[in-house]
Prior knowledge:
alpha+beta; 19% strand; 415 residues; 16 helices; five-stranded antiparallel beta sheet
Amino acid sequence: MRLISHLPALMLALAVSLVPPTVAEAQQGLFSPRLTVNGRAITEYELQQRMKFMELLRTPGDIAEAAEVALIEDRLRMDAADAMGIKLTDQQILEGMKEFASRADLSVEEFVEAIGQGGVEPETFRDFVEAGLVWREVIRAKFGPRVQVTDADVDRALSLSSKRGFPPSVLVSEIAIKVYAHKEEETQALAERLAATLRGEAAFAAAAKEYSAAPTAEEGGDLGWMSSVSLPPPARAALQGLRPGQVSQPLRVGDMLVIYYLRDLREGGQTAPEGAYVEYAEFLIPGGRSAAALEEAARVRARVDACDDLYGIAKGLPEDRLTITSMPAARLSPEVARELELLDEGESSTALTRGDALVFLMLCNRQAGPAEEIPSREATRTALANERLNGYSESYMSELMAEALIRYARDEEGG
């Protein structure tokens, strides 16, 4: 009788033992840590969720790599907020979600439903928004007191925004010194000494050839003439207020300490500004800078005279292969801005790559911004302050990344 009474339980245990464990193991693996950032785990599930989210947002390039970097940075943002005692309310996060959803002309509920159809959970969207909002509060609290925008700064910015003037061009050189973990203090001291003592173009060029790890080192750090709107925010912040012949303070960018030398400055003319708004196309060709990809780019170039022609080339291909974008020139990424500055309408470049793809970059057109979009003094003051804060933000994130202890589960298992 005792055996019979236990038979159902024994049969259930036997049945479970005979079921292939793949489902349970897969679920366990999905929620196990893929890596840790300063002891905080990022799971495989979080990575897959962020990848799906970025795919829905049509993020170009290597989605897996971009998602992993984004999650690492989000952990660092939340760590920095915790260290400073900064915490958002549920209402603040909800307002942030509303603002993000409104960019697609959707309510939060409609946006959540839309991404849910793509397999993205609401918590993924919420975490994404929270990390961005809390980072903004961190940067304001940490660097806000350092940002001073004078009336002269506002006057200058308004003159550049006005239809009366072109954006100025700058002739800039750079020294980028690689920072190694065991030599941080030594490298910082070297960069500060160079910034304080270098005088003149010849001396700066010689130092660039000796110390710089940038591709421009062989040319003495020469970046050539560039429109001021082509510079990344940290560089614009570093050059702010410099006169020709002066050297910036060292700026941390990734694993580099960068020093800029303002060699010359050309103010804008007295006609309507060109390049205030830029429309450009990016057609991604798999294969990076391989011979096959470059040959394909040459075939595309031979078949197109204008950006609209690329629609025919991209017909039947995945939608993310071709994007045509129109935006203010000041919001362009540095590398794209630099290439577009060299192009006339209908011309193309193949100098850039994104992930494992070659970028066929084509300038569609440039146009001046409408007069009503020239900002007020207060809006200009706010924009200048935000630009400088953006420079601090990028530099601070680079420092946090350099100092972070990142451990991958695969390395732990292997070691």
